[in-house]
Amino acid sequence: MRLDKFLKVSRLIKRRTLAKKICDAGRVLVNGRPGKAATDVAVGDEIVIQYGNKTVTVVVKRLADNPRRDEAASLYDMVRVEPRAGDVDEEFVDDEAETP
Amino acid sequence: MDPAEGHDVHILARREIEVTGVERLERFDAAAFLISTRAGHLSVEGKSLAIKAFDRQAGVIRIEGEIGALIYGDHRRAARWGRLGR
Predict the structure, then answer these.
(1) pTM above 0.80?
(2) How many other C-beta atoms lie within 10 A of the C-beta of residue B43?
(3) Minimal Cβ distance to A97: which of B48, B51, B54
(4) Å from B6 to nearest chain A CA?
(5) CB burial string B44-73: b at 16+ within 10 A, e below
(6) What is the sign of the dihedral through the CA atoms of A35, A26, A38 and B52?
(7) Which regions in chain A score pLDDT beneath 50?
(8) How far is Cα B51 from Cα B64, in angstroms, rounded to an integer?
(9) Percent of chain B having pLDDT more than 70?
(10) Which one, of A97, A75, A93, lies nearest residue A10 by Cα?
């Protein structure tokens, strides 16, 4: 599955525009290497997302094309969340209410 | 060693909670977090909850938001007041 699609269906990123933008800005690593929006992700891959206000690390657990809202978080295992040191980069904050 | 050793919970001014001895973050949303800890499943309920920090390796999670309730998995919620009434 495409990286930007996975970020969307898992609700790790709520806004489709941000999903693509954050990938193309090189702020999403897949198994340690910067991923592009079209990078293919598979179960077991480690994804690190450098949001504007925090860094989140997850492992892909399941792929599903359109999971129900309450199933979205079951597509990945949460591994680490670190508040971002220094100032917040508003451009890459996923500001919808219930981001992880 | 008591399995619950190293599992502590700190609530700070009812708007942040730190839990140690965390094994896995099972599920979470803005209203509830289900965490498996050395001392069993713990659910933290509240309003606009969000992860402030989490390190699965260190087994520590910090959640911010308005803390409402903490319930360990094996504790039957319904029984809590029944016995007091008799």
Answers:
(1) yes
(2) 16
(3) B48
(4) 19
(5) bebeebbbbbbebeebebbbbbebeebbee
(6) positive
(7) 97-100
(8) 6
(9) 84
(10) A75
